[in-house]
Q: What sequence folds into this?
C-alpha cells in the first residue's frame, strides 16, 4: 500500500529518477533481511548500498528540476523507511522457511 501511494505521488509530481532508489529499496531490503537477519549488520549494509544508489541517482539520473521538488526528497525518505521494513520482512521470510 505504501509502495503504491509512493508511486502515485511520484507520478503525480512528475518526479523522475526515483526508479533506481525504489529498486534498491525493494531488492536490497529483502535480500539483506533474508541473508543477515534484522540486526546492525543487515541495516548497515542495506543503508550503505541504498545511500550509494541514492547519491548516484541524484548526481547522474535526476534532473536538477527534480532535485528542487520536495516530492523527490520525501519519496527518497519514504523509500528508505520502506526498505528498513523490507529488511524485517526478509528476516521474517527466512525464519518461516527455516521452520
A:
Amino acid at each position: 500500500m505504501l509502495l503504491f501511494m509512493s508511486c502515485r505521488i511520484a507520478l503525480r509530481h512528475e518526479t523522475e529518477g526515483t526508479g533506481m532508489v525504489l529498486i534498491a529499496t525493494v531488492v536490497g531490503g529483502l535480500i539483506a533481511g533474508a541473508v543477515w537477519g534484522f540486526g546492525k549488520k543487515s541495516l548497515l549494509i542495506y543503508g550503505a548500498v541504498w545511500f550509494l544508489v541514492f547519491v548516484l541517482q541524484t548526481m547522474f539520473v535526476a534532473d536538477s528540476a527534480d532535485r528542487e521538488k520536495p516530492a523527490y526528497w520525501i519519496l527518497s525518505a519514504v523509500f528508505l523507511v520502506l526498505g528498513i521494513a523490507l529488511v524485517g520482512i526478509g528476516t521474517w521470510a527466512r525464519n518461516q522457511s527455516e521452520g
Observations:
- The helical segments are 2-12, 19-36, 40-61, 64-67, 70-98.
- Confidence is low (pLDDT under 50) at residues 1-5.
- The chain has one domain: 2-98.
